[in-house]
# Entry
Amino acid sequence: MPYLVDGHNLIPKIPGMDLGAVDDEAQLIEMLQEFCRRRRKKVEVYFDNAPTGQPRTRNYGLVIARFARAGVSADSLIQAHLQRLGGAARNWTVVSSDQQVQAAARAARAQPISSEAFAREMIAALRGTPSKPEAGSEAEISPEELDDWLALFGGGKGNKE
# Structure
């Protein structure tokens, strides 16, 4: 089941990430790419405030990032996407702790999940092993690579929370 993710709602729920960071969106996209690779999922992540002069939609393989233009919220883009999906919305999971976004997901028959719950699921996927590896797929990450990921995203050794 693919995901529609409220990006700025998810970022503060991930240990070590901060909405005030210059590269918060890029960090989240990197984490989502690894999550998608490991779980064989697709994600469309929505952010407010598209950078001027940049495309509003960027493709990162299994992750598509969509940026709302000035005057439009990521929440409204998610709701519009659910409406366009029609009956197919029931095949999607919507990640947000925003009550209006969750209500729109339920109304469209999509599966809502809180940002907190998804953050836990994503971190577990990054720490664990991929589900059902395919023949010829990449090997499991090394302990050193896992430590690098955890250090980058605030879950590593010495992180005091």
